[in-house]
Amino acid sequence: MSVIADVVIAALLLLGAGFALIGSWGLVRLPSTMERLHGPTKATTLGLGALLLASVAYFQTRLGIWTAHELLISLFLFITAPISANMIAKVHLHRVRIGAISEPDSIAGPPPRPDGEGDWATFEAPRRDNPASTANS
Amino acid sequence: MNRLLPHPALSAMLLIVWLLMANSITVGGIVLGGVFALVLPKFTQPFWPDRPRMRFGRAFLGYLGIVLLDIIVANFQVAWLILFRRNGDLRARWLVVPIDLTTPEAITMLAGTISLTPGTVSSDVSADGRYLLVHALDVDDAEAEIARIKTRYETRLQRVFA
């Protein structure tokens, strides 16, 4: 029993560490800001998930207690990872528009404008009466 | 009911998170968590006046399952791209996704989902709230990818926020 548990915990730890390493490697080797964002927001999510599962399994098999903090950590990660990616992307949009980019061009090129007369929300003050607005209440 | 609990789901969430933080279920913990669950939504109600109507039944659980599955698949796909695809062969591009969802909460959930799932990061929403700007790491057919996002996530979210 405990041998099986040890093998499972070790496998989870290796899987988690492997994905964290791949995510960091992606951050280093992908060509520009927008591509680099994909490494840390995805490849590390599963890595951390596996590490947290290993933690739950370790405390359960070794000390006989159930811990719930890992659930909370993954919950907070799922909430914060898209937001930080979104913030970095918005800063990137502004830097592209004012021509302040001092790095190799992104593969995707400059971002398109939305159809219609409008622009992306980060370039405009919030308007009333639209779903993206926080000014209408 | 609504005046006592302006955000019932938020109250339930606060109680659950409090008990998880305490890491034990005791009477004292439930009472203290219950007080927080009652008081905090009441005091923060002015910041969040229009509560979206959400259904936490089958539609929500199905959505959660699909997203968790896609997150696992996404991790392997992105790891594969990072390890074995040369930079010159990456077909990264911007997608402009038209959205039919109308509440800010629903659009936020869609954007968060897009950021967590296969090879896409949502970057911004248009000022009129009708388009999402999404960056895709490796996409062959932009139209097909947009259609996939809409059918896989948006239609399910529309059922949750009905």
Automatic annotation (TrEMBL), chain A:
The lineage of its organism: Bacteria, Pseudomonadati, Pseudomonadota, Alphaproteobacteria, Sphingomonadales. NCBIfam families: CPA3_mnhG_phaG, PRK12674.1-5. Pfam families: PhaG_MnhG_YufB (PF03334). Residues 103-137 are annotated as: Disordered. Keywords: Membrane, Transmembrane, Transmembrane helix. This is Na+/H+ antiporter subunit G. InterPro entries: PhaG_MnhG_YufB. It comes from the Bacteria. GO terms for molecular function: sodium:proton antiporter activity. The chain crosses the membrane at residues 6-28, 40-59, 71-89. It comes from Sphingomonas adhaesiva.
From TrEMBL, chain B:
GO terms for cellular component: plasma membrane. Keywords: Cell membrane, Membrane, Transmembrane, Transmembrane helix. GO terms for molecular function: monoatomic cation transmembrane transporter activity. Its main location: membrane. It is found in: Cell membrane. The chain crosses the membrane at residues 12-40, 60-83. InterPro entries: Cation_antiport_E. This is Na+/H+ antiporter subunit E. NCBIfam families: PRK08965.1-2. It is a multi-pass membrane protein. Belongs to the CPA3 antiporters (TC 2.A.63) subunit E family.
